[in-house]
Each structure stands twice: as C-alpha cells, then as structure tokens.
Amino acid sequence: MADNTAIPQGAVPENANDHCPGPESEAAGRAAGCEGCPNQEICSTQASGPDPDLSIVAERLANVTHKILILSGKGGVGKSTFTGQLAFALASDTDKEIGVVDIDICGPSLPRIMGCEREEIHRSANGWSPVYVQDNLGVMSIAFMLPDEESA
C-alpha cells in the first residue's frame, strides 16, 4: 500500500523506480517507468507545476502589510480563541484594517468566537467579501460556505 504523503515539489522519491520521470513531469505516474512503483498513485494524482492561482493570490495580498499565521499540529489548544482576541485587539486601532481568515475545515469556530456565525459572505464579480464584525474588522471562514454547522 502506498504512503499517501505528498511528495515535496521537484523531489524524486527515494523508493522510486529507476526510470522515474519525476513527480513534476506531465508523465508522472503514467509513464512506463512508473509501472509497479509504490508512488504511482500519488504521482498520478498530484498536481504538476506551480499553482496557476499563485500570481492572483500574490497580487491580492500585495497591499497587506502584515500577515500573521496562527497554527498548531494539535487541536484544542486555543488557536481560534487566540486569533479572535488578537484580531479584536489589533482592530482597536481604528486606523488599521484587520482581516481574519479561518480555514479550519473540521470545525470552523471563528465565526462563533467573533459573533458572526449566522452571517453570509457576499459574492460579487470581484470574488467574495468578508463579513464585517466592526468597521475595520472582517472575517472570512469556511463556516460561511457550509450548508449547516454539522457539515464540517
């Protein structure tokens, strides 16, 4: 059974067949040299090349002066609580625009913490607009896109 761990971009797995075309090749997982390789399924389903949306994301984030990432490899340690409190503290400076993005797909709790759990995101030709909990504090969460709370 193949290990389902993503292969680092550009790296040929140590246990690959001798004629491995490499995971970035268009033939990754499909070439004759891939037959019987323990990584064949991973390589054939892994996206090849750079993400085409990277330039769009970079352009949209170009005017964001500071970006803070709060993460942990463990659940239940207070990431969302800390994020919410930090956002409110930073937004106390009304000269600043603060945005929070909650990408927790297993249990997005930030809308509840921020007091906007029943709100809906706004869709337009320019994309999605966050839910504002204060004039200078916007929240975007996976939870806003789910049909109900039990869907996470």
**Helix amount:** 10-25%
**Head-to-tail CA distance between termini:** 29 Å
Low confidence ranges? none
User: Would you report the number of β strands?
Assistant: 5
Helix/strand-derived class? alpha+beta
Total helices: the number is 4
Largest sheet: 3 strands, mixed
Report the C-alpha radius of gyration, rounded: 21 Å
What global shape is seen? elongated
Order of helices and strands: HHHEHEEEE
Work out the strand percent: 5-15%
* Arithmetic mean pLDDT: 85
User: What oligomeric arrangement do these chains adopt?
Assistant: single chain
Strand order of the largest sheet: 1-5-4
Give a quick rundown of the structure.
It contains four helices and five strands.
Task: Please describe what this structure looks like.
With about 150 residues, this protein is α+β, with helices and mostly antiparallel strands. It contains four helices and five strands, in the order αααβαββββ. It has a three-stranded mixed beta sheet. It has a two-stranded antiparallel ribbon with strand order 2-3. β2 (about 120-125) and β3 form a beta hairpin. It starts with about 40 loop residues before the first helix and ends in an 11-residue tail after the last strand. The model has no long low-confidence stretch (mean pLDDT about 85).
